[in-house]
Design a protein that fits this description.
Radius of gyration: 20 Å
CATH architecture: 3-Layer(aba) Sandwich
Number of strands: 6
Oligomer: single chain
Order of helices and strands: HEHHEHEHHHHEHHEEH
Strand order of the largest sheet: 3-2-4-1-5-6
Helix content: 40-55%
Number of domains: 1
Strand content: 5-15%
Structural class: alpha/beta
Distance between the termini: 73 Å
Amino acid sequence: MRELCELLQCQANNLMSRTNQLVLVRHGESEFNLKNLFCGWHDAPLSAGGLEEARILAAANLNEANMVFDKVYCSKLCRSRTTVEAILSEMQCSFLPIVSDWRLNERHYGNLTGINKRVLANQYGEEQVQFWRRNYDGLPPPINESNIYYYQIANNPAFLDVPPNEFPLTESMRMCVDRVAPIWLEIKKEVLMGTRILLVVHGTVARALIKHIEGFSEEQIEKVNIPNSVPIVYEFNMKSGQLVGDVKYLGDSQYIDKMKKKVAAIGD
């Protein structure tokens, strides 16, 4: 009887200690990243370098870490979807189901969309531009018909499922954090049920998700910078829902630190 009790207790402990991983990746460099332009909801494609990043950085590091997935989430924007397709192709698992959800779209940068960050800083000052970029409540001016990308964004058929009353004209970081909250709860529920998920999104959306995942304060998340195509691995206790161990960035640490600094800067 004692041996049976010990066996049952051991099984219960194993069940409680079971973990599952979630991997978060920012898409590869886009054409707008390359040109140092605010992008947001404009559907800019990956640059040639960005496509290569998805293969030789994201996919290669995921393969080296022996990561396996059951399902993939991305946004409605092609730079997110193309990154997913490149990664899955390199990992030889293109058969995986892919869920594209508008709530994972990049933060909407309003009327800043399409403007070079350095040009804007020269006009309004670096402090103002960094306020728009990094302040938790920094709200760019709403996009209007004068912006050359206004109609491309408003008429993008990929956004047909966005409720009219939720279609943004601009967003702060706070608004972006609130937008991704419901879908994060849906994804986390799947993770805790054992689904191995790859989540390929955008810079600010990755930061919004990190705030939910790691419980960062508003001040802390303002200072987080996410490089393109660097996988971030989270491990969850499937019973408690809590994070287990340290967060892991897959790849060369010196390269990752260099790219974080590049993301933080306004650029040339």
